[in-house]
Aspartate aminotransferase family protein
Amino acid sequence: MNGTLTSDKLSAYWMPFTANREFKKSPRIITSASGCYFKDDKGRDIYDSLSGLWTCGLGHNNKYINKAITKQLNTLDYAPSFQFSHSYAFDLAERIASLMPHRLDKVFFTNDGSESVDTALKMARAYWRKKGMASKTKYIGRIKGYHGVNFGGVSVGGIVGNRSLYGQGIDSDHLSHTLLKGNEFQKGLPLEGAYLAEELNDLIALHDASNIAAVIIEPVAGSAGVLPPPVGYLEKVREICTKNNILLIFDEVICAFGRMGSYSAAEKFDVTPDIMTTAKQLTNGIIPMGAVISQSEIYDTFMENSGDEGVIEFPHGYTYSASPVACAAAMATLDEIERQGIMERVNNLSPLFEESVHSLKGLPFVNDIRNYGLAAGITLEHKDNTPMKRPYDIAMSMWEKGFYVRFGGDTVQLGVPFITTPKEVDLLVNALGESIENS
Ligand code: PMP
């Protein structure tokens, strides 16, 4: 395996979330990566404007993280995760808990964002059963929400294309999304829209709180094109959940560990969920790992209501939960976040990123621009009556220019690495402006 692809090798690989037939006609192949850049199979440097898939904020090929992983591989490569363990898992859980808002201090390890979401959903139902409220099984998600691809996550998710092939999943209903007419081109948090949280009262009236286990939302929705919450919205959702005895889950798979300029969006917005899901940036994207962080009251409920000490309180977990190598990657990532003063860097760079991205306002086809932290979404006019066509064309033109940008629905998404420079942001946005104009 030398990183190059020959045409006789195109058949077997069924690519995820990819237009396979189109891709295989002209593959876009990455061969190596360092810092903020990939190299492609033609030897070109490609700027990574989404930090992988919102994963590699510290850049690629970080020597300190690589060394920690190699050391771990040579010490303890794998240990069973059920009924036996290793100190790295305990150390990492303590470290993560110490970085989260008060009371979010129990950590359950998974391997990715989708597993974190389904773990959180199961945890919520089981929690109510342990409390003797077995009827609380329904979930409330949000239109345009993305919560991964497993059955639970797809059911609470609200992106039509990801749902429509699979039929009815688990019992869920959905709040409206927060993209409001009149809020276009607002920088940071939209001022209008907190009232949309009141819809939760309508859904509670419809289904009754005695049947609802949890509400799940992304504080800043990512995959639908970066939707920051309207001012006051999260607070209102929190208030309604608390009042009605419904758990609140924040899906922070994109938000946590730096993207918002904080260890969590919960911290940034000062709204604490009962359960938080994380993944991606936890290991800088290098080794798959996720973590579900719950309030101690939830953990305590499992411990106190499961009978004998020998009983498994939460019959759930993965072969690779807290694999030692993933723990080493996460620990080293958190070291690097601290050592490089990443939160300060992100907070310092965010205003410049915001100005730069919003300079695209006024270009043809640009219908809206949204941003928070180092995340931005640019919504584009449909082309050939297809929402995805123009973002796709723009992404292809950017690839030709030496930039990887992500497209989804009618938006182009940016999530530049935390370590990027103002100059690189400038080059990216200039190139993007040209590609938009020519689309
Ligand atoms: N939740 C959110 C908010 C996400 O953004 C994602 C991935 N983009 C997921 C869940 C799923 O994560 P994964 O692809 O690691 O399963």
Q: What stands out?
A: The first strand starts at residue 30 and ends at 34.
